[in-house]
Amino acid sequence: MHEYSIVQSLLDRVEAEAAARGATVVHRLRLQIGEMSGVETALLRSAYETFTDRSICAGADLEIVPVAVRWGCPACGTDLPSGSALRCGDCGGPARLTAGDEIVLERIEMEVPDV
Ligand SMILES: [Zn+2]
């Protein structure tokens, strides 16, 4: 399942970060999920619960921030309103999705003991 592999790679990254900083506990994760990323947040949450059970993320909150779809023109950098014609009003270039398909681990809150 798509969501399971996302959580798995998420956990790999969090564990690597935690190990690099000597963290003992992870309190909270913040994820940006684009509306067009194809991720079902409900499934993602249940995959997260299952996978984090025995990991350093056990009990950590998962905060999901939805990211709206945005279009833009890669040629001249103009933002285009979504739902408009898929060509740039300035230069006529083809519009491209500039946001809304991402899955980004934005922040990890963890506890690093004082040395
Ligand atoms: Zn343009």
In what order do the strands lie side by side in the largest sheet? 2-1-6
Which whole number gives the mean pLDDT? 92
CATH class label:
Alpha Beta
Q: Report the structural category.
A: alpha+beta
Beta strands, count: 6
Quaternary organization: single chain
Beta fraction:
25-35%
CATH architecture annotation? 2-Layer Sandwich
Bound molecules: zinc ion
The poorly predicted ranges are none
Structure description:
The protein has 115 residues and is an alpha+beta fold. It has a single domain (2-111), classed as hypothetical protein PF0899 fold (2-Layer Sandwich), CATH 3.30.2320.80. The chain is built from 2 helices and 6 strands, in the order H-E-H-E-E-E-E-E. It has helices at 2-21, 41-52, and strands at 25-34, 61-67, 70-72, 79-80, 96-99, 103-111. The strands form 2 sheets. A 3-stranded mixed β-sheet has the order 2-1-6, covered by helices on one side. It has a 3-stranded antiparallel β-sheet with strand order 4-3-5, with no helix packed on it. Strand 3 (70-72) and strand 4 (79-80) form a beta hairpin. Bound molecules: zinc ion. Residues 73, 75-76, 78, 88, 90-91, 93 line the site of zinc ion.
Short description:
The protein has 2 helices and 6 strands. It has 115 residues and is of the alpha+beta class.
Topology at a glance:
Blueprint: H1 2-21, E1 25-34, H2 41-52, E2 61-67, E3 70-72, E4 79-80, E5 96-99, E6 103-111
Parallel strand pairs: 1-2
Antiparallel strand pairs: 1-6, 3-4, 3-5
Helix pairs in contact: 1-2
This protein binds zinc ion (ZN).
Zinc ion binds next to loops.
